[in-house]
Design a protein that fits this description.
Blueprint: E1 10-11, H1 14-17, H2 26-38, H3 49-62, E2 68-72, H4 75-90, E3 94-98, H5 107-111, E4 128-131, H6 136-143, E5 148-154, H7 167-179, E6 183-187, E7 211-214, E8 225-229, H8 248-264, H9 266-281, E9 287-293, E10 296-301, H10 306-314, E11 318-319, E12 321-323, E13 327-330, H11 338-352
Parallel strand pairs: 1-11, 3-4, 3-5, 5-6, 6-7
Antiparallel strand pairs: 2-8, 7-8, 9-10, 10-13, 12-13
Helix pairs in contact: 2-8, 3-8, 6-7, 9-11
The chain binds pyridoxal-5'-phosphate.
Pyridoxal-5'-phosphate binds near residues 16, 103, 154 and 158.
């Protein structure tokens, strides 16, 4: 990235994990330009081959090829639809979510987010229980009450500070949801789309969700999101709908992203470069804990990171993100090269030594 004076920056944040294939990738630019010159938008009441083609491609590459795909425009919207669909499916109302979770800022999505001051009185309606992440006993007791429609969980908690659910916890959670006929919703909006080094972070635990929500990296910055829905759900006319969702430009952008993923092996790149970064970051004694998978990495310091981030930005020309006061969040494009990762380590060294 470059500023208005032409100074080059290293982007270790990808605009909140949105930039998956890098900025201004020629394949991406070409695909959107060609589509807008043909047809930018038409109503969803007309079948779109672009949508069908994209849904087929995504299903194959993410390992959920028997799931349906509903396309919308933002992460919050994806979670709204997921929660609603779960409730239509089993007729129940209550949702189990987790402490430190973030699922969006609207209606039901904000109510299942564990940040009380984001919730306005009009969002209060939904009944939600927040369990500690990885506390399977509490989850088990709650689900046994029979009140729950769904459990919503991030593949890796992002806004909360890059916190991983244990693989074993996810497996037991899956089993409990099945046992109690509760819908398991995996929010992979930040941790998905290859960022963790697998297409979805929950695939490290070898579990399948009933509904998966995706957004951020899906179209490299073109507003788009998706809900992957298990074939056990019955499609009912009118339950889901959208004007802009899955429009022609969004599908062209998202299809170009999948093309680039394939051509440049970006999921594998995220795994490899992420592993390198995690190993190199271990040399800094100031970092209390390093958490994450692939190119979703949290660096927890013993003190606020504001000064470190300011120096990284203005002296070393590196963009980073933050979670809370003490955690630096790294969410670079999945196309980050090993040389760029090495450059980041050098620049961090210059700030920390
Ligand atoms: C895990 C998770 N879920 C949902 C959202 C909401 O997405 P959006 O801002 O596109 O509504 C975010 C955004 O940061 C997120 O990280």
């Amino acid at each position: 990235m470059y500023d208005s004076e032409g100074v080059e920056y290293l982007d270790m944040y990808g605009g909140h994990a949105v930039i998956s294939v890098g900025h201004a990738h020629p394949t991406y630019v070409q695909a959107i330009s060609a589509q807008v010159a043909k047809l930018g938008f038409y109503s969803n009441s007309v079948i779109s081959r672009l949508q069908e083609n994209f849904a087929g491609r995504l299903g194959k590459v993410c390992g959920y090829d028997d799931y349906s795909l509903f396309l919308i425009n933002s992460g919050a919207e994806a979670n709204e639809n997921a929660l609603k669909l779960a409730s239509f499916h089993n007729g129940k109302k209550k949702v189990l979510s987790f402490k430190k979770s973030f699922h969006g800022r609207t209606s039901a999505a904000v109510k299942v987010t564990d940040i009380p001051n984001y919730i306005s009185p009009v969002n209060e309606g939904l009944e939600v229980f927040f369990a500690e992440l990885n506390d399977i006993e509490t989850v088990s007791k709650e689900l046994a009450t029979g009140a729950y429609s769904s459990v919503i969980i991030e593949g890796i908690q992002g806004v909360g500070g890059i916190i991983l659910p244990d693989d074993q916890f996810l497996r037991e959670l899956r089993a409990l949801c099945t046992e109690n006929s509760v819908v398991l919703i995996l929010d992979e909006i930040q941790s998905g789309y290859g960022r963790s080094g697998k297409f979805f972070a929950h695939q490290y635990a070898d579990v399948k969700a009933d509904i998966i929500t995706v957004a951020k990296g899906i179209a490299n910055g073109f507003p788009m999101a998706g809900v992957l829905i298990s074939p056990t759900f019955k499609a009912v006319y009118g339950q889901l709908g959208t004007t802009f969702g899955g429009n022609h430009l969004a599908c062209a952008a998202a299809t170009a992203v999948l093309d680039i993923f394939e051509q440049e092996n970006l999921v594998e790149n995220a795994r490899r470069v992420g592993e390198f970064l995690m190993k190199e970051l271990a040399q800094f004694s100031q970092i209390k804990e390093i958490r994450g998978r692939g190119l979703m990495i949290g660096l927890e310091f013993g003190e606020p990171v504001k000064e470190i981030r300011t120096k990284l930005l203005f002296e070393q020309k590196v963009f980073t993100g933050v979670a809370g006061a003490n955690i630096i969040r790294l969410l670079p494009p999945l196309s980050l090269t090993l040389d760029e990762a090495k450059a980041f380590i050098q620049r961090l060294k210059a700030v920390l030594h």
